[in-house]
Amino acid sequence: MKKPTKAQIINLDKKDGLAVFRDRFYIPAGITYMDGNSLGLLSSDAEESLMRVLDEWKRLGIKGWMEAERPWFWFAEQIGDMASPIVGAKSGEVVFSGTTTVNIHSLISSFYNPKGRRTKILADELNFPSDIYALKGQMKLRGICSQKNLVLVKADKDMLLDEQDIIEQMTDEVDLVFLPSVIYSTGQLLDMELLTAEAHKRNITIGFDCSHSVGAIPHNFDEWSVDFALWCSYKYMNGGPGASAFYYVNERHFDKEPLLTGWFGYLKEKQFDMLTEFIPAANAGRWQISSPGILGSSTIEGALKIILEAGINNIREKSLKMTSALVDLLQEKVFPDYPEFKIITPFDDNRRGGHIALEHPEAVRINEALKARDIVPDLRPPNIIRLAPVALYNTYEEVWNVVEAFKEIMDSKEFKKYSKERKTVS
């Protein structure tokens, strides 16, 4: 929609089939929230499932492990099955457990098997730092030098990754490829299907960190034959701050040995036999380590209900429309007078995740000016502002208003009132 008018934007809201879900979220009063790619908002559905579990603990005590409405003993597996449709997985392939980085360690420990010439892990320089820390740690545990064996694909001058560059570096020295589905800074969506097919042509295992895509973008892990994946639940899935994470393992790997073994990865039917010999679960559950934090995990049940009710394809369709409108409005209203702005997110729908990333030399101060206007964006140092209009609770009119705020902040030089020093948490 090139040069959209205010009337056209409001009309999009009137026709929006997902608008009904906004009322089921707690949106902070007076706030335009554009940070759902960092922390999604609480829904009444998530609150309801939390309060139910809290009441079960109150009424049932330890009996809740087997007698709760959703027995806590099976909670991780059942919630995993509940999430399976939005990632294109079968029952038993998805588990709700651990945290993102813990799951990286758990899965990489099994899927990275350096032998002979194949000692390298292929990743990328734009990946979230925690992922790189974990990869380096796993290599160090094996006595493998990460300086020589961790290959990080370089971004081009526009901060984008080229899939062909990644494929060219899938050499016979690479044992494992581990990449993000969406680049957390730029919002670029990688072609997971293509990359998986090319890795498998070369007998290379491939996994993905999908923290910045699940809940906003449909996935087809089984159809694409992805080996493994993992993702957090507190961004587009709206599970709450620090909520547990998910992981996926393709069923063809259910015979693979988990190495970071723990109590909850045990075969359920024998878990309370208290044997010292580890007998792993027969499905993806074998990569669980510790008992699930039931209270901290309970919100995801309600949050998932909304996603499933809305439909992940519908969510993606609206997300693309909102980010497209954001790009069009910025190009029309802001960029002509302030060409130092640059959108570093791909414009192509097939290459764009759920947020738009803007570069500007004064990003820190502009970000502060937006917050002073009760707009919640997201800063990624040194000079990137991320904006995520979320399909389930943002409106097209909010997108319009955010762009108007950008224009006013730049015209009035309002941003100059703020410090160039970013705050501890950006």
Structure in words:
The two termini are 32 Å apart. The strands form three sheets. A seven-stranded mixed beta sheet has the order 2-8-7-6-5-3-4, sandwiched between helices. A four-stranded antiparallel beta sheet has the order 9-10-13-12, covered by helices on one side. The chain contains 15 helices and 13 strands. The protein has helices at residues 6-14, 44-60, 64-67, 75-87, 100-111, 129-141, 146-149, 163-168, 192-201, 221-224, 294-297, 299-310, 312-333, 363-372, 396-412; strands at residues 32-33, 94-96, 120-124, 150-153, 174-180, 205-209, 228-231, 246-249, 342-343, 356-359, 375-376, 378-380, 384-387. It is 37% helix and 12% strand. The protein has 426 residues and is an alpha/beta fold. It has two domains: 6-30 and 311-417, Aspartate Aminotransferase, domain 1 (Alpha-Beta Complex), CATH 3.90.1150.10; 49-308, Type I PLP-dependent aspartate aminotransferase-like (Major domain) (Aspartate Aminotransferase, domain 2), CATH 3.40.640.10. The protein is globular, with a radius of gyration of 22 Å. Strand 12 and strand 13 (384-387) form a beta hairpin.
Annotate the secondary structure layout:
Blueprint: H1 6-14, E1 32-33, H2 44-60, H3 64-67, H4 75-87, E2 94-96, H5 100-111, E3 120-124, H6 129-141, H7 146-149, E4 150-153, H8 163-168, E5 174-180, H9 192-201, E6 205-209, H10 221-224, E7 228-231, E8 246-249, H11 294-297, H12 299-310, H13 312-333, E9 342-343, E10 356-359, H14 363-372, E11 375-376, E12 378-380, E13 384-387, H15 396-412
Parallel strand pairs: 1-11, 3-4, 3-5, 5-6, 6-7
Antiparallel strand pairs: 2-8, 7-8, 9-10, 10-13, 12-13
Helix pairs in contact: 2-12, 4-12, 5-6, 13-15
